[in-house]
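Troubleshooting log. The previous structure file for this entry was overwritten by mistake, so regenerating from the original sequence record. Sequence copied from the archived sheet and checked twice against the printout by T.R.
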Amino acid sequence: AVVLPAGHRLRPQDLGGLLALGLTTVAVARRPRVAILATGDEVVPPEAAPGPGQIRDINSYAIAGQVLAAGGVPQLRGIITDDLDALRAAAAAALAENDMVVLSAGSSVSTRDVTVQVIAELGEPGVLFHGVATRPGKPTIAGAAAGKPLLGLPGNPVSAIIQFDMFGGPALYRLQGLAGAPPRPALWGRLAQNVPSESGREDYVPARLEQSADGLLVVPVFGKSNLIYTLVGADGLIVVPLNRAGLMAGELVEVRLF
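Regenerated output below.
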């Protein structure tokens, strides 16, 4: 028997080499199934024409792409209204049938935001934390029940995508036997303009890369976390560390590539 490195995906061409070595048993990990639930009375499917006060469901499909990239199998469970009983039932069913559950929206603190209560009631240990010192994505929730990870993401798409990258991806890799996410490719360049921040908060700022006479230029793409174009028009993220109150133009910065 042979045990392949954790996280290795067995390819058809690997089988011939294993058979040539006389090895007929290979230990593998099943790809984790990840249930994705969108929440909100205002959320409608992408194919629907939004009415007044409604928005299309972006998060389910963006997160599904991230799940696939991390080796998981996304299971889109539809849109659940802002009703505690409905969300509790949908989340419990998703937990029973999958290896991980992701709830999109409802993670803040208004009376309609019930994700934290649902996660707390799904089983022990329940909510592990509610709120992170980052922007975007401060109201993110993480929990666990029945030995399975639970993630409550903010509703704004930029926040949801970045926070899944921070917490959802590493959890998926752990489920597949890795200690954490593989190293992310990154580049260094000169910052084109100032990036404001606050000490005690880690900021993730979308940025695009441009070639200049002085080398690689890093141009921040500013915008609110409900504007998906900030990620569409970016090549990666600038990370402003916790102990910095911003970055200055001309500073050498690292860009974590998508």
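The chain is about 25% helix and 35% strand. Archived copy saved in two places this time.
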